[in-house]
Design a protein that fits this description.
This protein has 464 residues and is α+β, with helices and mostly antiparallel strands. The protein is built from 9 helices and 20 strands. One of its GO terms (biological process) is proteolysis.
Length: 464
């Protein structure tokens, strides 16, 4: 009897029955993916995969406190289930007291459909998208462009059961589309990406039109030196920067003086105005089009998550409200340490509050500046200021008198997203976007374009 012949909720129940620990959490994640890949205006591969990952968290009480052990494995058969549970228990006994120990969550209503079969994706998700992609190939071929890229759709059904009686289930679809257009001599390249739940709201033809315009801009090449430039950041680039900011917003680290959100002299910067623009950064598990799990799923413990908090209900949270820092991420443990409200991290992020202007309208109102496509290879330089470095990629364009006049060389940048928010002079209309750098980990974002008057292009990059 294999893992696929057992229903996920049955696996969860059986693992809980096998547990000899003082507390137990079991998460069964059912994965299915469908993908298309293409190169040179032709499909190259496609496929469908399915699998299961089982995570067991065992908690063991002792005189000095409660310890936890976590073990995750894929493809667990019925014969391997008890050894997995025992491995988690052994890990807990060997670990010593867990600093983040809390009573396991209780009294969360059972999810409807907990015993139902998992949701699954298939190649049918591309039923309308694939023919439209073929039409985009034909147009690109006629226009002298080559399209490369991939479309990936994933469905994860997560079943959470605990020894305290929780029985929760969430189905999470995730779709990503990335397309590169290249000139036949490969000297020009442009990128576009989209995030989607079901591929019904993405138009390959519209992406090809966007990419064709960018390749046309690149026919004129302009070399610029490093320096500070007025820069228009598109939603994708804004998402990459603010996702990293959220990942760096643990309340405990801030309270202990280790991050950009630490207050000089002690405490955190909660209540401080970070930007003069009336921007609100928020998360909501029920955000239309960006829906995420309404309860916490923690497969490991860290600065912003704790396995003891599994099943904790999640509600709408404003991280920044009208420019003022309102919340930092906390577990129940770190909330108690810092005296701040419990505010776990979320599966989506929305920045809003800008003017009702598109990126194109912001370009039209630019006397001279740079228009970026996306950011790449983002790395942290200094956690105390959240200084990040990275590269521009697939198109940096010079805007003069409201028009794009050519493509310039790529740059390495050095910037802090917190400082950027403080220096931004204009935000446009928020829209769903795909963060390019972090798309393997975080896709559900809605961001506006931002105008920064002095974006620091610290050196010239030879990348494309």
């Amino acid at each position: 009897m294999t893992a696929r012949t057992n229903k996920p909720h049955e696996i969860v129940e059986r693992a809980l029955e096998l547990s000899r620990a003082d507390g137990c959490v079991v998460i069964a994640d059912e994965h299915s993916t469908a993908n298309l890949r293409w190169a040179g205006n032709a499909l190259t591969t496609n496929g469908v995969t399915r699998g299961r990952t089982l995570t067991v968290v065992a908690t063991v009480d002792g005189k000095e406190g409660t310890a936890s052990g976590v073990v995750s494995r894929s493809g667990v058969t019925a014969d391997e289930l008890e050894p997995l549970v025992r491995a988690a228990e052994d890990a807990a006994r060997a670990a010593g007291p867990a600093e983040d120990a809390q009573p396991l969550v209780t009294e969360v209503p059972r999810s409807p459909g907990f015993t139902d079969a998992p949701a699954e994706t298939s190649s049918a998700v591309f039923a309308d998208f694939a023919p439209a992609l073929g039409e985009a190939f034909a147009r690109a071929r006629e226009g002298g462009r080559e399209l490369y890229g991939f479309a990936l759709h994933e469905m994860v059904s997560s079943y959470l059961g605990t020894s305290t009686g929780l029985r929760l289930r969430h189905d999470q679809p995730k779709g990503t589309l990335e397309v590169n257009a290249k000139s036949p001599d490969r000297t020009r390249s442009a990128w576009a990406g989209r995030s989607t739940r079901d591929f019904k709201d993405v138009d390959p033809g519209a992406l090809d039109t966007e990419l064709a315009r960018r390749l046309a801009w690149a026919e004129r090449r302009i070399e610029l030196p490093a320096g500070r430039y007025e820069t228009l950041l598109p939603p994708s680039a804004v998402a990459d920067l603010l996702i990293y900011q959220m990942w760096s917003a643990a309340a405990r680290d801030a309270a202990e003086g280790r991050t950009v959100f630490s207050k000089p002299g002690g405490g955190t910067r909660i209540g401080e105005k970070l930007t003069a623009l009336p921007l609100t950064l928020r998360s909501d598990p029920y955000e239309p089009g960006l829906e995420s799990s309404p309860f916490l799923l923690a497969h490991s413990s860290g600065d912003d998550a704790s396995v003891f908090d599994n099943g904790l209900p999640l509600g709408a949270t404003e991280w920044i409200a009208e420019g003022v820092l309102k919340h930092l991420t906390t577990t129940r443990h770190s909330a108690a340490l810092t005296g701040l409200p419990v505010a776990p991290g979320f599966g989506n992020l929305v920045l809003e509050g800008g003017e009702d202007r598109s990126l194109e309208e912001m370009v039209a109102n630019t006397e001279r500046g740079l228009l970026l496509t996306c950011l790449w290879y983002i790395r942290e330089v200094d956690p105390a200021t959240l200084l990040l470095t990275g590269l521009t990629r697939d198109g940096v364009y010079l805007v003069e008198n409201g028009e794009v006049v050519g493509e310039v060389n790529n740059f390495r940048f050095n910037e802090s997203p917190v400082d950027l928010l403080g220096r931004a002079t204009e935000a446009g209309r928020s829209e769903k976007t795909l963060p390019r750098e972090w798309s393997d980990w975080f896709t559900r974002a809605a961001m506006p374009p931002l105008r920064v008057p002095d974006f620091n292009m610290s050196s010239v990059s030879q990348g494309v």
